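Bench notes, afternoon.
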Amino acid sequence: MKKILFLVAILALSGIVKVQAQCTVSNLTITIKNVTSGPTGCQVTLDASFTGDFNNGNKFAFIHLWENEDYPNPTINYVSGTPPTSTQLANAVATIVIKDPGNNNATLHNQYPPNTTVDVVDPSEINFSKTGTTFTLENIVVTLSTCNEPVPVKGDVWASQSKDAQNVHCFNSGIITILFNNPAITFTKNCDKLILGFQNEHDTIDVTVVAKVFIDVNNTGVFDSGDEDITGSLNPALPATIDLPKNMINPVFFPNLSYLPFSNDPQYDGKPIIVEASATVPDDADAATVVISTAPQQIIECATLPVTFTSFTAKRDGSNVVLQWETSSEQNNTGFAVERNINGAWVGVTFVPSQAAGGNSSSRLVYKYEDLNAVKGVSQYRLKQVDID
């Protein structure tokens, strides 16, 4: 059996609200590794890297992230030189403390010096490194309010040259903007074919997505150098860019994507599939950063069709077209949407409910529908099966 793993690699740009020299974060990249929904919220495990510009004299640098609705109001008065208080940080989804950020030997610190009661990202659980001006943090865990809708997150960066960070010497408020849980990705895998769908659920931001598909040769669950890029082998090919307008009702689907010859090669048989996607937004968007952060998901085996068709016919009877189809089994089936194509455009005709009790049947079922259609040219018909869920 084959499985498919969706890993979303995230590209985020930084939008600067107020700039103070040598205290900036840019080129932010986030990779979502796991998302778990629980009674306390949505737990997200991620890797992050960014370019940090900090003065060598800074003893500490701080990154605070809040969900937009919890962002301190009024905003923190960094101009006065006063660090954020424990009350202002009480609802932060993450506080990251970096010691000696301007030096090559920078480290992740285990306390918030201005007030040690504030929770910070635990250095013992993070792989931290710095190369030049690039900071990398692996396995950060943040808890969001929900996994089921887009969650905008805003972040501040500030630094201090004082020993206990009691004074703010540089800051950038609102420099980081991240949009979690968007766009949504829908998918399935019918043995050697893929069906991918992308949906932008944000109300005000248009998104452009670039997607790549890999075979997880090493079975690591994440993209690495040993994996095989099959994006160029997909047939039909994915578009170079996928435009997703704001507040979409339905996903943009790419069905029946075959990936020969890899799907028939024993070397790749049974290997997971990884889909890597990056998102950008228009330059004039209100939010300067958008992050695709859909959770990695797996299909353990080839998906089976919820309905097994044994026939589907269309016959003209005067000004009507008689449609008839039969099923030998149905699972979780609400019914069938009938669609017609006359001049190159598919349009909905009607919906025929399933005859199966509760949507499930292992017996032969026969359906019939007569469509009023007096067009003398060529007409095409198709069925769209709809699950209960």
